[in-house]
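Ticket #4471: structure output looks truncated?

Reporter: J.K.
Steps to reproduce: submitted the chain below (303 residues) through the standard prediction queue, then opened the result file.
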Amino acid sequence: MATKTELSPTARESKNAQDMQVDETLIPRKVPSLCSARYGIALVLHFCNFTTIAQNVIMNITMVAMVNSTSPQSQLNDSSEVLPVDSFGGLSKAPKSLPAKSSILGGQFAIWEKWGPPQERSRLCSIALSGMLLGCFTAILIGGFISETLGWPFVFYIFGVGCVCCLLWFVVIYDDPVSYPWISTSEKEYIISSLKQQVGSSKQPLPIKAMLRSLPIWSICLGCFSHQWYSSFLMGASRGFSSIAPVIVPTVSGFLLSQDPEFGWRNVFFLLFAVNLLGLLFYLIFGEADVQEWAKERKLTRL
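Returned output as attached by the reporter:
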């Protein structure tokens, strides 16, 4: 029968010291992170995510410029009260959003199962996935400026340079470190031995109160909230806290457009910029890749 017993301070310190000694003997010797193969792959995935999200965002930013420049009545469409029209004089039926289509978004999670040591996996995933927020941030920041000064085609030319990441993917990305030709022997042994020592944790109650007081948890939630500010109503209604943004953004955008028909869209994008920047800064300040105290396994003694 498993029972939870209280140990004296001396016994508890002795037991913890023994556990620490055992753990230290099991942990493989860590190899340098700088110029390593695993962090190089994380950097390649970072730029792939950057390009994928940036291409999706600039499509939405340049949509108005494309419609106005290809319409024969574009000269008469300067007023914000006139809807864009197509070449036949009807209302434009341009798509509201175009989803990003790339296999890297799903494939990269399978990569870290064989490339990411357990004690570094969160950091490697954060480096790779941060390219999404950076791509969205950069496209919003300079996409409109490029479209206005150089023309909307140059937005795709400039951000299209990132398509070289596709070539890097085929050359650099391998299924596992065993088949990787440019990895050092020490790093290969470090990754393989780390993955072999993964063990599952025993069942323990979910520490909800401690999770609600954890700033790293709230940094993830706020980061997801700001990232979901381009989504639709149906998607937002079907998800959790991170998708509250798509539910309220149509109302907020409609209010800004109704208050200022001439500069309403400028205010919408300024708000979009502020929300994404706030989520990024909050995550950079409070986000952590370490296991929190409330998530660590509790020791149970058997009598």
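Triage note (M.O.): checked the attachment and the full token line is present. Residues 1-7, 9-25, 72-102 have pLDDT under 50 and may be disordered.
Status: closed, working as intended.
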